[in-house]
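Consortium newsletter contribution from the modelling node. Members have asked for a concrete example of what our holo predictions look like. Here is one, prepared for the NAI complex that several groups have been discussing at recent meetings.
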Amino acid sequence: MADMKQYVEDVLASIEQKDPEQKMFHDTVSEVFSSIVPVLEVHPEYRENKILERMVEPERTVSFRVVWQDDKGEVQVNRGYRVQMSSAMGPYKGGLRFHPSVTLDVLKFLAFEQVYKNALTGLPIGGAKGGSDFDPHGRSDNEVMHFCQSFMTELCRHIGPNVDVPAGDIGVGGREIGYLFGQYKRIRDSYDAGVLTGKRVDYWGSLARTEATGYGLLYFVKNMLDAKGIDLAGKTIVVSGSGNVATYAIEKAQEYGAKVVTCSDSNGYIYDPEGIDLAAVKEIKQVRRGRIKEYVETHPQAEYHEGCRGVWTVKCDIALPCATQGEIDLASAKALVANGVTAVGEGANMPSSLDAIAYFQQQKVLFAPAKAANAGGVAVSALEMAQNSERLQWTFEEVDGRLKAIMKNIYESARKNAEKYADPDDLVAGANITAFVRVADVMLAQGLV
Ligand SMILES: NC(=O)C1=CN([C@@H]2O[C@H](COP(=O)(O)OP(=O)(O)OC[C@H]3O[C@@H](n4cnc5c(N)ncnc54)[C@H](O)[C@@H]3O)[C@@H](O)[C@H]2O)C=CC1
Ligand SMILES: O=C(O)CCC(=O)C(=O)O
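And here is the predicted structure:
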């Protein structure tokens, strides 16, 4: 064991030495590789074939200039990226993020996570992530369209239905996917519906893709709670974010009879002791593209608080971080535990710091890790690709039913490997091991690529 632990430490040290500034990438690699030491013990062939060293090196990374003109006629310059991490399991697959915080470090961490998340779905998709430091907030539809067209003019050389299939993520929703698809189609002169997922349903997006990540999160959390005999109905839930994932997590949680008392945006959070009025949140965020603080104007019983971390000081049974990475640090984890939290389900990617996860586990909080718990979005993206290939569209019920089954399967396979190699409740280790073995075995079968 000591030998394999040392091997993992050596690989981690080498990536830190190569790219010392990529802290988030180091953290996510460290989280995955630390879990798999017991697997390396029984599979020396992974080390002999340098599987770990290969996995931390993206197959391809592209970085490009995006030039566009704003409504005042001023020229704007942004940076675009696509990190194609692994095509072992299928075409590269993963979202595009438009947010000022986007760097190569952020995208490498997200692309690395995506490889294992996608493997957990059991569907034929590799892993990638891309995006830009462009901020769509406050931009007109016209400006967003010009940016998307310029971004796709370069990106289209690197993607295709059997090559790489981007989708949405922070700052990229149905509007952006539409502009991106239009430009791809114009340049390639080909109606490749399967080149992007998250399309609007009337031009061959999948029903239930919009809801899939949030609903999938609740399906996963329900499986985790059911195994312990805990009922979701009547529980108080704290949610962060008010975008795609948060909105549909709240919707499904409410359907299950839970009471969601918070949601947030990058400025602050709202606390509604009567339970969040989701129709009002949708109106503010999806229709008006406004700020979450507007909620208190029509809901006098609710409070608005500036700043994001405060949301974790609200008393709850279950916490669902659905905004962004790094939102739960050790202090937030301690505040949640002190207030009696019994379960945490990660809707966002890497929302909890490594020491926060360790603390939850030490305190026996049931913990649903992102790459398993939020895999429903990309799973339904893969179902969208399947529908596009057969030029058919399935019903909402058909897609939702498949999503539910996929999330159950992810939970059960993670649980099984947690039992086999670690603590039975350690779904972090269980999910990492399940995904790692699937990808590693396929890499071995495909030779030195
Ligand atoms: N959209 C999808 O299908 C999937 C998304 N995710 C992850 O879920 C998280 C949320 O993504 P979406 O809901 O799609 O994005 P979105 O753009 O629809 O919503 C993002 C939300 O997070 C908030 N936010 C963004 N940056 C923040 C910051 N620095 N501090 C506090 N709040 C911040 C925004 O105000 C917004 O409410 C991200 O971590 C994303 O990678 C994971 C799996 C799939
Ligand atoms: O649907 C997809 O391809 C991307 C989803 C995504 O970006 C994620 O799972 O983090």
